[in-house]
Amino acid sequence: MKKEDDLESPLLPDGKPAPPSPPAAKGCSAYALVCALLASLTSIIYGYNRGVMSGAQKYVQADLGVSDGQLEVLIGATSVYSLVGSLAAGWTCDRAGRRRAVAISAAMFLAGSAVTAAADGYAALMAGQLVAGVACGFGLVVAPVYIAEIAPAGSRGFLSSIPEIAGNSGILLSYIADFALAGLPTGINWRLMIGIGAVPPLFLAAAAVLAMPETPRWLVLHGHPDEARRVLARTSGAADADRRLMEILTSVKNNAGAGAVDSPPPPTSVWREILLRPTPAVRRVMLAIVGLQVFQQACGVAALVLYAPRVFGHAGVTSVLGATVLLGAVKTVAIVVPLFLADRLGRRPMLLASAGGMAASLLVLGLSMSMPASSSWAEATCVAAAASFMAAFSLGFGPVIWMYGSEILPLRLRAQGTGIGTAVNRVMSALVGMTFISMYEAVGMAGSFYIFAAMSAAAWVFVYACLPETKGRSLEEMEELFDNAGADKASSPRAALS
Q1: Which ranges of the sequence are coiled-coil (predicted)?
Q2: How far from 254 is each of 217, 246, 248, CA to CA, in Å?
């Protein structure tokens, strides 16, 4: 039992468990749930946009004469474009508000899908993917930030898992659309596959304008404490609203000066505090965020999401689109697990289990690629290992890193810091997406997955050594947690060795 406790929280200050948060009233939790679901529409659209090219790419190539090299650049460039979007989203969230940033994201998703579906050449495809990629960057930032700030502490893990579930649902829907529309004439099928993605943003934009409240912390930061209290009363309960409001007010004043409630920190000071002159706590927070984002993509998930038909075809799988749909279904079903366990087990155990499962699954997947392509064992092992990898990824490294990153940043740095982490994620995703074909041609398909397995094993070490547990803590406690984590690491031989 002691070993299990040590595994879960070796970096907690003084070795004490996180204090439980007061439970929110049932109706208030329902209101927070509705807000989280609306914000998560962004993630459904993002997932659809990311997954649809997996099945559409060969029809795009046949219709428009796109080469393998051009396709590799087209798919990978979307992640580069989303890098721009993620950096711009942090600034937009701070200036315009979290709710308006959601609406802007929806408008760009609509435009990007429409332009890509109507493309008559490679240049037009790149233009459409540019707009859609920027929208993806926005979506990856605004949904986690919005939900982290609107959710009560006791259900933040539950609600923060919803965007990743929504994103996987979007990927699954894109695979189903690819499978269902593949039989239509080339030139029509891929345009419908992509064009369908322009419909949900209409509903998201309307929801953002008409139904979603602004987050209490942004309202306090911009001098609207009365409105913030009204939102808190609906999400945390009227009896708890005053206490929560005072915590937010105190946090803002302590971190940014007495006048900070009436004016947000200027962007230059935010960037300086994150990158140039971070405090030890902020430095540890950013290390955790950037490290998680690097390892999430370095494990090769983008290779399977974007190139699943090629991977299955290499192993001799007969129905590559059917196997791809199965992969999306497993990923979507498995992502439900963190929804119920993140607030019970904690973030660290789920990330550790996820990294270990990914490493083992990728090792088996690499071995399946070494078997003869005509072998039925190779086909079955490949599909099973790929599905196992997606399930392990969805247990932790899919959803948990987003909730973890959005909750550990101080309020004044949350939007911009999340944007930086997302930008790093997009750079890594672009590297994987733009080099996977070249990589497996150079080292073989099996060698590529052995590399991904090694990166997953390194991710396990990183989580164990560097991440404190955040379960049950309010957002206002996080900076102190990372301050104490640093002190513990300096004073503890065991932690220092880690």
Answers
A1: none
A2: 14, 12, 10
Q: How far apart are CA 296 and CA 300, in angstroms?
A: 8
> Using CA atoms, how far apart are residues 315 and 445, in angstroms rounded to an integer?
9
Contacts of 400 (CB under 8 A, 6+ apart): 161, 338, 342, 347, 350, 351, 354
Please choose, from the candidates 92, 202, 79, the residue with its C-alpha nearest in 3D space to the C-alpha of residue 145: 92
Q: Is 29 exposed, middle or buried (0-12, 13-18, 19+ CB in 10 A)?
A: buried
> Cα separation of 369 and 314, whole Å?
8
Confidence of residue 302 (pLDDT cuts 50, 70, 90): confident
Which residue, 111, 116, 105, is CA-closest to 82? 105
Using pLDDT thresholds of 50, 70 and 90, give the confidence band for residue 267.
low
Residues 6+ apart with CB under 8 A from 231: 150, 213, 214, 215, 216, 219
- Sequence-distant (6+) residues with CB within 8 A of 427 are 79, 80, 83
Out of 178-187, 340-349, 404-413, 474-483, the most confident range is 178-187
Taking residue 33's Cβ as centre, other Cβ atoms within 10 Å add up to 17
> Measured between alpha carbons, how far is 186 from 207 in angstroms, rounded to an integer?
35
* pLDDT at position 191: 93
Dihedral, CA of residue 482, residue 474, residue 86 and residue 401, to nearest 10? 70
Cα gap 64→125, rounded to integer Å: 10
pLDDT tens for 398-424 read: 878 877 877 787 767 777 787 788 888
HEC per residue, 28-65 = HHHHHHHHHHHHHHHHHHHHHHHHHHHHHHHHHHHHHC
Q: 264: closest CA among 410, 407, 412, 146? A: 412
Average of per-residue pLDDT across 208-220: 86
What is the DSSP code string of 421-461? HHHHHHHHHHHHHHHHHHHHHHHHHHHHHHHHHHHHHHHHH
Q: How many CB atoms lie within 10 A of CB 111?
A: 17
End-to-end CA distance of the chain: 21
Asked if residues 98 and 149 have their Cβ atoms less than 8 Å apart, the reply is: yes
Using alpha carbons only, how large is the chain's radius of gyration in Å? 22
The rounded Cα 149 to chain-centroid distance in angstroms is 16
SS3 of 278-346: the string is CCHHHHHHHHHHHHHHHHHHHCCHHHHHHHHHHHHHHCCCCCHHHHHHHHHHHHHHHCCHHHHHCCCCC
Segment 170-178 shows an average pLDDT of 87
Question: Scanning the structure block, which residue is given the tokens 């505090």?
Answer: 273
